[in-house]
Amino acid sequence: MSEEAFDTEQAQAILDEMAVMAAYGDIVDVPRPVSRTHAPMPREDRGAQFAPFAALSGFTDIIEDTARGH
To answer: Is residue 68 within 8 Å of residue 62, measured between CB atoms?
Structure first.
């Protein structure tokens, strides 16, 4: 990689970071909110809230049906 290409990539990375800071700089260092009334959800239970939206729901059944046919 040439020095000029590296300098261009480095400059682009700096510009990208500056753009993010311009857009979100006012909230970057704000601490996340913590509820005073609700305890945090246990880590083990967090994934369960997304289960109904599983992208491959029923996929295992289709694979098993196909395997039985061969």
So the answer is: no
SS3 of residue 5 by DSSP: helix
**CA atoms within a 13 Å half-sphere pointing along the CA-CB vector of 63:** 5
Q: 7-49, pLDDT tens digit by residue?
A: 888 999 999 999 999 999 899 889 999 999 999 989 888 877 7
Separation between Cα atoms, residue 40 and residue 46, nearest integer Å: 10
Q: What is the DSSP string of 7-54?
A: HHHHHHHHHHHHHHHHHHTTTTTPPPP--SSSPPPPHHHHGGGGGGG-
Separation between Cα atoms, residue 4 and residue 12, nearest integer Å: 12
The C-alpha angle 27, 25, 43, rounded to 5 degrees, equals 40
What is the value of pTM for the model shown? 0.37
